[in-house]
């Protein structure tokens, strides 16, 4: 695993030394937008017009950030509009690579073997980490955006002419509530598990550990009284962003990242909520435990040098979730 420096691939892991052993997630570089008519994005971002078969999504089924984008593409029924590549789950000295084993889908845009070659197509002098997800513009021959939070919004709002608009992941009336809970969940949970797992000192590990479980406890209490994270009739973006961490938690974060105060299965409300989202039409087919467990346990050599992939946990994710008892509100919050 590594990064590009002025267009040259270097096999390097995250350097935590300058941050006292703490993992600091780098910022992403490609932040343009897609809108129905090419007018600027919500914060004035440079944007391109939505068109069928113009955009290509590169994801990993292991990655919780890419999983968000994959879920948005699925829920908005954009599978025939935006083509897809799925990288191999094993990330080694060349970073993410393409293959066709175990449900991976090769690069149909360029036929490249490594994801960093796609970044170099966009910018031959690129410096930065080579991450998934990536939305590629086949017409302009460059990356539109490689930030999953943006990609979920782009897929939710940018492709109106082609999408299932009965699904609105960010209803305007709930946007402020969604943004607020996203912020908490991002720092303490989505990124929190990484801060625990990638820490290289005891102190850098313990702080995010406490914040993670305090936040999961808070969410457990919230979900005892309401069906979803915000007062919505249907899952919103906030729920899907939490879901991709929850579904990996017991299988990977609990052991591999040492997030082991509790499992999600120990939280009755969080577990039922996770089951409901897993059982939501189309979602189970986006969840691939071979990729999830295979990636984390075999790619992070410093954390798991033997590369043994644990067989457990043994969990049946198809059992009734019993969340119907929490009636969603009939009117969305104003
Ligand atoms: N900010 C990015 C982060 C994406 C990210 O870190 N993806 C990981 C996989 S879970 C990755 O590709 N890592 C490769 C690396 O850092 O070298 C997003 O949310 O889209």
From TrEMBL:
Residues 171-296 form the GST C-terminal domain. Gene3D superfamilies: 1.20.1050.10, Glutaredoxin (3.40.30.10). It holds the Pfam family GST_N_2. SUPFAM superfamilies: GST C-terminal domain-like, Thioredoxin-like. Its EC number is 1.8.5.-. GO terms for molecular function: oxidoreductase activity. Keywords: Oxidoreductase. Residues 20-45 are annotated as: Disordered. CDD domains: GST_C_Omega_like. The keyword Metal-binding does not apply. This is Glutathione S-transferase family protein. It comes from Fulvimarina uroteuthidis. The lineage of its organism: Bacteria, Pseudomonadati, Pseudomonadota, Alphaproteobacteria, Hyphomicrobiales.
């Amino acid at each position: 695993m590594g990064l590009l420096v002025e267009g040259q691939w270097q096999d390097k892991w995250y350097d935590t030394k300058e941050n006292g052993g703490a993992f600091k997630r780098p910022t992403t570089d490609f932040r343009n937008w897609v809108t129905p008519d090419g007018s600027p994005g919500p914060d004035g971002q440079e944007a391109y017009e939505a068109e069928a078969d113009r955009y290509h999504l590169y994801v990993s089924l292991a990655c919780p950030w890419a999983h968000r984008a994959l879920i948005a593409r699925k829920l908005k029924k954009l599978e025939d509009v935006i083509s897809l590549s799925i990288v191999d789950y094993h990330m080694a000295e060349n970073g993410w690579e393409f293959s066709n084993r175990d449900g991976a889908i090769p690069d149909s845009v360029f036929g490249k073997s490594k994801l960093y070659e796609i970044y170099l197509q966009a910018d031959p002098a690129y410096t930065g980490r080579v991450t998934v997800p990536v939305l590629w513009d086949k017409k302009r021959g460059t990356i539109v955006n490689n930030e999953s939070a943006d990609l979920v919004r782009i897929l939710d709002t940018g492709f109106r002419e082609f999408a299932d608009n009965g699904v609105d992941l960010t209803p305007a009336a709930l946007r402020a509530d969604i943004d607020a809970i996203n912020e908490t969940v991002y720092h303490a949970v989505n990124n929190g598990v990484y801060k625990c797992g990638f820490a290289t000192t005891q102190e850098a590990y313990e702080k995010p550990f406490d914040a993670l479980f305090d936040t999961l406890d808070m969410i457990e209490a919230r979900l005892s009284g309401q069906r979803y994270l915000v007062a919505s009739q249907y899952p919103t973006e906030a729920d899907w962003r939490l879901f991709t961490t929850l579904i990996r938690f017991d299988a990977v974060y609990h052991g591999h990242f040492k997030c082991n105060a509790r499992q999600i299965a120990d939280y009755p409300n969080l577990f039922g909520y996770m089951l409901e989202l897993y059982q939501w039409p189309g979602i189970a087919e986006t969840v691939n435990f071979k990729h999830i467990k295979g990636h984390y346990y075999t790619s992070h050599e410093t954390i798991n040098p033997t590369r043994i992939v644990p067989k457990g946990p043994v969990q049946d994710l198809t059992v009734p979730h019993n969340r119907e008892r929490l009636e969603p509100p009939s009117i969305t919050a104003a």
